[in-house]
């Protein structure tokens, strides 16, 4: 299916971005920055294509989640390895993602969707609300873009380096905080729900 091909094509684009980021010259690093925006935009594009072509499926949703996690996890790790952010960032994101995804994977066996696991109003707001989901996605995209740009400026010796790096760091911290805020309710509320009897359809 076309939508699944778009989803899977994100992986070679990600590989290209990582390759460019590890080049010593400034230009390849600068090229990586807009490619990151393209990579993130592809996440929305594959969903649009799937809905318009009637190709929505369980496989498609699984591939989409897997691609999202791969992109997010690897970029955090790469930027930490390049010493653009503290190693604390990928450690927190990977730990949070592993535990939250593990808990959510059990939800269907209990007759629940991931969002139904949130029973408290605050939990539903933090996890499901677009008021947090959208800023989280934007903060990640801006952080990744400006981190790549910072990396390029570091190689070129540009005087704009400090300003661009500040933007990158602020958005990286915002993304990390939102990541934790959206993950903690799952870890707090889910264990009790997973011990209940499955819902009857």
Number of domains: 1
Q: Number of helix segments? A: 7
Number of strands: 0
Helix content: over 70%
Average pLDDT score: 85
The rounded distance between the terminal residues' Cα atoms is 31 Å
What does the radius of gyration come to?
A: 18 Å
**Which spans of ≥5 residues are poorly predicted at pLDDT below 50?**
none
CATH class: Mainly Alpha
CATH architecture: Up-down Bundle
At CATH level 3, the topology is Four Helix Bundle (Hemerythrin (Met), subunit A)
Shape: globular
Helix vs. strand class: mainly alpha
Largest sheet: none
Q: Approximately how much beta-strand content do the residues carry? A: under 5%
Name a few traits of the molecule.
mainly alpha, Four Helix Bundle (Hemerythrin (Met), subunit A), 7 helices, 201 residues
Q: How is the secondary structure organized here?
A:
Elements: H1 2-21, H2 26-52, H3 58-81, H4 88-106, H5 121-128, H6 130-156, H7 161-194
Helix pairs in contact: 1-2, 1-3, 2-3, 2-6, 3-4, 3-6, 4-7, 5-6, 5-7, 6-7
Quick take:
By secondary structure, the protein is mainly α. The chain has a single domain (2-194), classed as Four Helix Bundle (Hemerythrin (Met), subunit A). The protein has helices at residues 2-21, 26-52, 58-81, 88-106, 121-128, 130-156, 161-194.
């Amino acid at each position: 299916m076309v939508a699944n091909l778009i989803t899977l094509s994100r992986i070679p684009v990600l590989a290209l971005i990582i390759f460019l980021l590890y080049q010593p010259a400034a230009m390849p690093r600068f090229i990586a920055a807009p490619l990151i925006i393209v990579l993130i935009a592809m996440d929305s594009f594959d969903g649009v294509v799937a809905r318009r072509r009637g190709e929505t499926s369980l496989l498609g949703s699984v591939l989409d989640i897997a691609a999202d996690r791969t992109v997010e996890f690897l970029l955090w790790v790469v930027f930490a390895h390049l010493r653009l952010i503290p190693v604390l960032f990928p450690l927190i994101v990977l730990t949070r993602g592993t535990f939250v995804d593990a808990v959510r994977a059990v939800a269907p066996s209990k007759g629940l969707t991931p969002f139904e696991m949130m029973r408290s109003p605050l939990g539903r707001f933090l996890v499901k609300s677009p008021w947090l989901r959208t800023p989280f996605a934007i903060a990640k995209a801006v952080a990744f873009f400006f981190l790549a740009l910072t990396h390029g400026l570091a190689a070129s010796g540009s005087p704009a380096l400090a300003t661009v790096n500040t933007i990158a760091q602020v958005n990286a911290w915002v993304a990390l905080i939102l990541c934790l805020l959206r993950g903690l309710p799952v870890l707090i509320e889910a264990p009790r729900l997973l011990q209940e009897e499955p819902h009857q359809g």
